Amino acid sequence: MPAKHAAPASAVLETSPAQGASTLPSAKLEAFLADCQLPTPFVVVDTEVVAQRYDALQDALPMADLFYAVKANPARPILDTLIGRGSFFDVASLGEIEHCLAAGVTSDRLSFGNTIKKRAHVERAYNLGVRLFAFDAEPELDKLSQTAPDATVFCRVLCDGKGAEWPLSRKFGCDPDEAERLLHLAADRGLRVGVSFHVGSQQGNVDAWDAAIETAARLARSLMGRTEPVRLDVVNVGGGFPGIYQREMPSIDLYGEAIAASLARHFTPLYGDYLPRIIAEPGRYLVADAGVLRTEVILVSRKHELDEKRWVYIDCGKFGGLAETMEEAIRYKIRTPHDEAVENGAPVGAVIIAGPSCDSADVLYEKTDYRMPIALAEGDQVDFLSTGAYTTTYSSVGFNGFAPLADYYI
Amino acid sequence: MPAKHAAPASAVLETSPAQGASTLPSAKLEAFLADCQLPTPFVVVDTEVVAQRYDALQDALPMADLFYAVKANPARPILDTLIGRGSFFDVASLGEIEHCLAAGVTSDRLSFGNTIKKRAHVERAYNLGVRLFAFDAEPELDKLSQTAPDATVFCRVLCDGKGAEWPLSRKFGCDPDEAERLLHLAADRGLRVGVSFHVGSQQGNVDAWDAAIETAARLARSLMGRTEPVRLDVVNVGGGFPGIYQREMPSIDLYGEAIAASLARHFTPLYGDYLPRIIAEPGRYLVADAGVLRTEVILVSRKHELDEKRWVYIDCGKFGGLAETMEEAIRYKIRTPHDEAVENGAPVGAVIIAGPSCDSADVLYEKTDYRMPIALAEGDQVDFLSTGAYTTTYSSVGFNGFAPLADYYI
């Protein structure tokens, strides 16, 4: 089980967006970036911040096993840090399974959380020792019952995603009625069963989990009503715990309290004191804030001499790591060399921020009201905060002849 | 100069969308895919089709030097094919310049068409022999006049993009008034000057070039009005020539006729018979149709037993090469193993098509009314046509643990 710490570095978590963009989560990152001569763009991640986030989340959710969503950032130093903390791992593919095993994760700590798996990959995962699988449809359940007969299979149920900065599509999960049918079918086939859901990425409403947990309890009750009652083996409350971007978010403790209260409210009447195994799948929360992405300004221009709004072109764009700016869903805090001057009264002005590629879709922020120092110019280094998650692996292999995003771990 | 062919394989170009999805542009591709045991996903490109497209476009635009937009697909076999045809090359970055030079392109055949360039990269490009550069703002012009004093610099002017399937954002180009100011400034500094524009990717209106060419002529007239008249060195009519997707497009000859008529209408009164050098930057048109992307169906499911619409999950998604499905802008033709049965009456039904990653944004088509055979099932191989452009290099380095898209050239 994960180590518990009496005094997690919760000060780090309390970094408020209101404090301005210039606060980094650790002195180590400040020092690294202060005299950094590395070519841009790159992202640097402080693994100690990852460890702090892990401990803080485990403290907030003491009832849960934390399965790190490897897709957020699969870098070895991050896996090593989390292995040292006692983490479990949520994997999206056979590639991620092999990557985790190579890092020393044991297969009993893996959950194959993708509802879309090739049959051969389920088989291989099972042979490698994985015993925890997601599904949301009958053909997928068929694969699992045929290939992984003694596994625990958890059915993903659709959520509405209200309150999330990145509400999920209907891609994953099925309607609750369908989930009920599938869970009974899985039980008929002798599989151990669970329920999972995801309330949406960067979820700002700590009560968002309640409706889904209520649904999970309703499904649990249905399984208890069988001639030979079946208990849920697992309730997987997913992810959605926020990183620090432009919008202020509740502290992680409030998430923990809300989820604990909801589990008690809906499951205690059914199971008494013996809850199913509770699983969470944090990705962004554990690694986002630990990273800083440094870029360089290539050009500041106007489309017309008299335009008020400037275009700021930087050397990292949508295809080089900043893919989560898609539809401007994730709005990063941005730091410039002129921020101190701005605090002392130097002027700022509205900007559109765009990447370096010859792709007209490679515009990062156009609708969001970003303002940057009027003094900003070619060659200035601009830092995007909370970029430890969903940057490096989103990067393209070489779109427009640009190399993939470089990454460093300190 | 490019070789001209009396009888280009124009039959290839006339492949009409109305003929259904199952027509590939060459027998070589059919044969390759017929007994292909390669693991999916992959894209295969027939370079002979690329050569045919090059010849057809050169025939349609005999007055133009064709600068292949390398970003569309920088693979060596494609460069080799086009070098053999006498092509010029439009490059987006120093990386692409070095890649082209390594392939044997001479630097006088390169155009650094990105309006966003690091000063050090302009310098390096200039030292490598590049003498043709784009710009759209005064600070970029400063870089060029300081670093590339005897170059030809062409100013990109904004277009409205009407009629394009992928209208461009305002990222590239400046307002015509600003272009006029900048061109005079460039002339003051002794640079040779040109004008460029882009009417939008996958442009369906052959008359879309006219307004931009008229603007270019107006700018040319302004430069002729100087005490010492300055002639435009280059008019760059950009790209926008279409690939074959779902929507039927005019034949390439009609584009050529419209552009030639427009150049004559606007430039002959000004320059007589001596037009500036005309440049075009085809990317998609040359390589898209030459490629087929083969995927495998992983899962076909419904969110509820009674849903009419099925979800079809395949092993290639937005982050694995099909990035141009973004906002469903590019709607590929899709081929399944059941198409013959469908032609003989087997039923089809509405689908949503999604990729394999654990990313909820990785949905390819949800609003577009795609219909696929009811018989479609796990393991079926599904081909996306016209995927030779903007697939391989968009692919992520390893999002969700999936390898970048494999590519083959035949």
Automatic annotation (TrEMBL), chains A, B:
Catalytic activity: L-ornithine + H(+) = putrescine + CO2
Record has Lyase as a keyword: yes
Any one GO cellular component localisation term in the record: cytoplasm
Top EC class, one word: lyase
Domain Orn/DAP/Arg decarboxylase 2 N-terminal residues, every copy: 50-288
Family classification: Belongs to the Orn/Lys/Arg decarboxylase class-II family.
Protein's name according to its UniProt entry: ornithine decarboxylase
Gene: ldc
